[in-house]
Amino acid sequence: MTNPVLAEVVRSGFVESVHRGALVVTGPEGEARLALGDVVSPVFPRSSNKPLQAVGMLRAGLDFTGEDLALACASHSGEPGHVKRVLELLAAAGLHENDLACPPDFPLHVPSMRDAAEPRRVMMNCSGKHTAMLTTCVRAGWPTSGYESPDHPLQQAIASTVEDLTGEPIAHTGVDGCGAPLFAFSLTALARAFGRVALAPSGPSEAVRSAMRTHPWLVAGTGREDTELMSAVDGLIAKGGAEGVHAFALPDGFAVAMKIDDGNKRACAPLAVEALRYLGADVSGLEGLARGSVLGGGRPVGEVRVPELRG
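Above: the chain sequence. Below: its structure as tokens.
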């Protein structure tokens, strides 16, 4: 099927580009309440998968809590506070930066990038997740070498948890940008999993939810969409991913997952704000995200316009 247009890029009153994609809203029982486009075919959730992976690691013996658990769910900006804590966690587990399988990279945070002499593994946005994976292996008595292989006991345990939370079998296993396994499943399953994490009364899912809500800066960073969303909307858990994926859930178990067909994430934040408005959340603090950024000569000359959701 051809997915609908979910966003228009408007410059100086003229529609310059459009973004097609799919979006689903699920209720507290995990059922689709609103479906736009193909929300049942498998997609790679990219970093939106991280909270589910963190639940799997806790089930396998990881003992992170609070700030450290938020960092395990993160696509962090590589700011000094992020990097410092990753290094501390590695040292606490008797590990070194070179044990990380994620590739060296520069920080996403522009001032931190300018200060960096060279790319490092700890600066890579997924280093918190990889540190948590390595620490889980240490706690469980599994080898740390090859922890990123889909056949490793760690990844098998994570895959089992992902299938449990999504309620779907994994359709395909690939390699994420950071080198860790990447599991494909539907947008409906992704939203359902976020809703289950949001509603869990106790245990690993509740711990992940609490960590993300309490420490949104560690999940992303200064000026990042997930940090702003979770800071502005009480009780929200949100996690974006590469190639135009975003998922989030409110405390009542209603959840949203989206995928932009062309992989451009600029439509995600305005769509997220509109979906939150559709669900009755107070989005008064998110005006900037709701319009997107269309600049001309360094000043705003347009917006990323999304349709009002109805259903």
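The chain has a mean pLDDT of 97.
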